Amino acid sequence: MTQAGERLKQLGATIIQQIQEAQNQIRHLSPDHLGSAAIGMPASVSAILLPPLARALRDAHTDAKLHFRDGCNGDLLSSLNAGSLDVALVYDAPGIAHPNLEALLSQPIYLIESTHNTPKALVATDTIEAAELMDIPLVLPGTRHGLRQIVTSWANRNALGLNVQFECDSYSSMLQVVSSGLAATLLPAASLKREILSGYFRCRLITKPALYRTIALAASQSRPVNAGLVTQIKKMVETVRGDFLWPQSHNTLQTSARVTSPPAVTHALQNNRTEVFGETFLRSLQEASPL
What we know:
This protein is an alpha/beta fold. The chain contains ten helices and eleven strands. The chain has helices at 3-29, 43-60, 73-82, 146-157, 171-180, 193-197, 227-239, 241-244, 263-271, 279-284; strands spanning 36-41, 65-70, 87-91, 102-108, 110-114, 127-129, 138-140, 164-167, 185-187, 201-207, 212-219. Helix 4 links the parallel strand 7 and strand 8. The chain starts with a helix and ends in a 7-residue tail after the last helix. The model is unreliable at 22-30 and 251-289 (pLDDT under 50).
């Protein structure tokens, strides 16, 4: 290659590098660019929303640093106010205070019980009247949890004396108590879809009056939040609306061999229906996650 050709090659490489650097700088200045995101939600919400949301965010923002956190209402709002979360999905519970809370979806609450000595084939119209709950031992999350606040407010409004025997702050401990037959709990059925379809738990829709929880979105006031991130989260909640409303969005509940829990959970459930789960079950549920 001639001296002129070598010089032209060097200049061309320099120009290409400068164009790439300019493109990167412009992309980072774009309002659609997402460098990082910290998103919090209750575990019973992340069980439905997290997989499709994480996939969609990764596809749209290949270089973004994504952090997801489970927590109860109190912890999520504290993290949001402290600036360690960009966005949180919380329960719109009585007394909650946040300046830009936006309701996204309301879920019906079901009575969740062990299937020990109960039929496995259940129809979606299985219901229980609110007054009947007073005779059923319950395990509920602690008072820092939005779900507990919603249940308590609903019970007080309707003069219902709920028989709360246990308080647990995680899925693992809640499922231990429910599966043992010691108590039932109140949760959206959709959060336990696999276990219900596999025949380990049954769900009955609470009626007269019905009980709902509303999932709301709150963005941080102490740090800039990418508007595109908020839009993507809202769109994904709408996309999986049917999953949040299960089984009301389906005609029947049937046990299915095609929809099963992970092997470790299945084994633990099959061998511990009338006693508290052992360590295998606890490990299979990973870390104890707040509701």
